[in-house]
Amino acid sequence: MNKMSTAHKSYPEALRPVGELIEGKQTYESITDSITSVVLERPNPPGWMLMFVIGGMFTCIYGMSLVYLFAAGTGIWGITMPVAWGWAIINFVWWIGIGHAGTLISAILLLLRQDWRNAINRFAEAMTIFAVACAGQFPLIHMGRLWVGFFILPYPNTMGLWPQFRSPLLWDVFAISTYGSVSLLFWYLGLIPDFASLRDRAKNRFAQLAYGTVALGWRGSARHWFRYEMASLLLAGLCTPLVVSVHSIVSFDFAVANLPGWHATIFPPYFVAGAIYAGFAMVLTLALPIRSWYNLKHIITARHIDLMAKITLATSMIVVYGYAAEAFFAWYSGSEMERTMMWNRIFGDYAPAYWALILCNFVAPQFLWIKWFRTNVYGLFLICQFVNVGMWLERYVIVVTSLTKDFLPSSWGTYHGTFWDWMTYLGTIGFFCFLMALFVRFVPMIAIHEVRVTHHKMTGEHH
Amino acid sequence: MSHYDNQGPSVFGIAAEYDDPDQLLKAARSAWDAGYRDMDAYSPFPVHGLAEAIGFKRTWVQLTTLVAGLTGAAVGFGTQWYATVVHYPYDIGGRPLFSWPAYIPVTFECMVLFAAFTTGFAMLIMNGLPQPYHPMFNIDSFARASSDRFFLCIEATDGRFKLDDTKAFMEKLDPKPIEVSEVPA
Fold it and tell me: Fewer beta carbons within 10 Å, N or C terminal of chain B?
């Protein structure tokens, strides 16, 4: 560790890393204990109860919204012509984006040998899976007729029809379903050795059987670890281009269309950066309270928080570059439509949303240059809320400004979400919190075996 | 045990227990140098060089990834080609039917899907998992192998394995094990 610390001496004081990757005097056993006890012993802290109950309530509200939606049709939402996409697509992109940080942490940072990911990857991967679960529902319920949802899949049918393989909407189906299932696989494989730890430490018979079953008889054999590490590396190598492809394809939903404000080559990289930005803010939003509820500050340390805040800041700057590039392209294209669209976006009916977005995604993250905001949990939490709101507004601005004022002034109109738009959206946030609450209660929320590796690197002999 | 005794060895092997991964690594190398080949090491996290120390140097997991990835790409591309060119050709303003650039996203996703699942399952199958029972679980302290204990086990199938000699060898290992125990089969 000392060698690492001296290497950082060249950074300016304000940006130098703080603290250690594991705080305090720990042993392999104390690390195992502090993580497994959350699942096996610790009573549920009030914060968790709150998350579980409120999450559960909003899950029910979501259920009711869906029932009403399927009974009455998508007319209960604010969607209209020409704004046929509305909140469903905004929420879809928002959720998918949030998921991306999980894959970045678990796959890309693994390939880059960033050891600090070890304490947060499990958590972030769970977030990915739940966010994708929320995202995936929106395109389906947006059909209003969920029971024909399978039409989007290529399957042999008596009509002799195929889905449109040349459409980004179909690419989305493949991208999201691959992303969701591969993330789930990666997450589960990572969990196997930790389930074995739970199996071996569980006191009651039911927990032993349950965790024993999902641990698949893992015994930590050197041969098994060898293949396991190879598989993890390969999966990380597959997930890295996958995560980039997923949000690129999501951005194609817009970029392949000819609408002013959508038809831009900057979209794929700018969407991917925005996704990682939103995702890190959400990881912090969840990690900051949960590490405090369960006394895990020695494993998710100030160093992790600081590093995540720095990535949030860096990706914020990429996103802001995207905003600038969009405005520049609109002007440089020389197209009347593009210029009008951009003028409308900045000064038109939806100007408040645009400027709120600039406040949330450009102004608020600038505070992260200051060390105090990266190390003070309350300050950082507040900034993350700005980011969460800002990234939703970004998609709102993109979807709504382009659709309300397209090529034909005669079809121009306005668009606003309705009560049921709100309930559906808040409902998925509740569903997400509910799943996260169940996750921290039943599954080790930190990859125990990987934190042991970090501990070994910090304390053991080097070969 | 009783009447199975004459069908095979009654012990699975002799296990030495450590509380440090670096000691386990040294012990594994000593056992290899002493000529033992049928052995395995158990640790609560992957220890760099341990598999090599017990003579396990390569795996074929990556080959399955390659084959599955190529298969997935071929299936994805082939399905789209078949659907848009052969089975359901649709002339839209004379645009080419074989519009391969539009097939790339789905081809790529199919490649990743096939490769990832094959990699995961190949790893589990090659490891012989799920395997609910294994003799090592018979040692009480092995419950700590998933937390803070490290085991080296020389198995009875090894040509040089002799219950008393091997046990004596393991007790004299440097570094000294916390405990040496017989693993019942």
Answer: N
Question: Does residue A141 belong to any structural domain of this protein?
Answer: yes
B162 vs A: CB within 8 A: no
Closest Cβ–Cβ partner in A197, A235, A241 for B146 = A197
User: What predicted TM-score, i.e. pTM, was given to this entire model?
Assistant: 0.90
Q: Which helix (H) or strand (E) holds A452?
A: helix A448-459
Q: How many other CB atoms are there within 10 angstroms of residue A157's CB atom? A: 11
Tell me, yes or no, whether A3 lies in a domain. no
Q: Where are the alpha helices (DSSP H) in A151-301?
A: 168-201, 205-215, 222-255, 267-293
- CA gap A150, A153 in Å, rounded: 6
Judge if the upstream peptide bond of residue B132 is cis by omega within 30 degrees of 0.
no
Residue A4 lies in a domain: no
Q: From the candidates A225, A232, A448, which should be mutated to test the interface with B, based on the most B CB atoms within 10 A? A: A225
Q: Residue A246: which pLDDT band, with cuts at 50, 70 and 90?
A: very high
Q: How far apart are CA A61 and CA B110, in angstroms?
A: 36
> Which residue does chain A place closest to B43, by CA atoms?
A220
Q: Which two tokens stand for residue A271?
A: 């969407």
Which ipTM value was assigned to this complex?
0.91
- Determine whether the interchain pair A171/B122 forms a contact, defined as Cβ–Cβ distance below 8 Å: no
**Nearest C-alpha in A relative to B56:** A223
- Which residue stretches of chain B have pLDDT < 70? 1-9
| DSSP three-state, residue A228 | helix
> For residue A148, what are the domain limits?
12-459
Q: Is A335 exposed, middle or buried (0-12, 13-18, 19+ CB in 10 A)?
A: middle
Is residue A2 included in any domain, yes or no? no
Whole-number Cα distances in Å, B119 to A113, A218, A442, B1, B47: 21, 17, 27, 39, 21
The nearest CA of chain B is from the CA of A158 a distance in Å of 13
Q: Given this model, what pLDDT does residue A349 score?
A: 87
Chain A: give the shortest CA distance to residue B79, in Å: 9
Q: How crowded is residue A428: how many other Cβ atoms within 10 Å of its Cβ?
A: 26
CATH number for the domain that contains residue A368: 1.20.1630.10
pLDDT at A14: 66
DSSP code string of A86-129: HHHHHHHHHHHHHHHHHHIIIIIHHHTT-GGGGGTHHHHHHHHH
Closest partner residue to B46 (CB to CB) among A201, A228, A239 is A228
Q: Where are the domains of chain B?
A: 4-58+135-184, 61-126
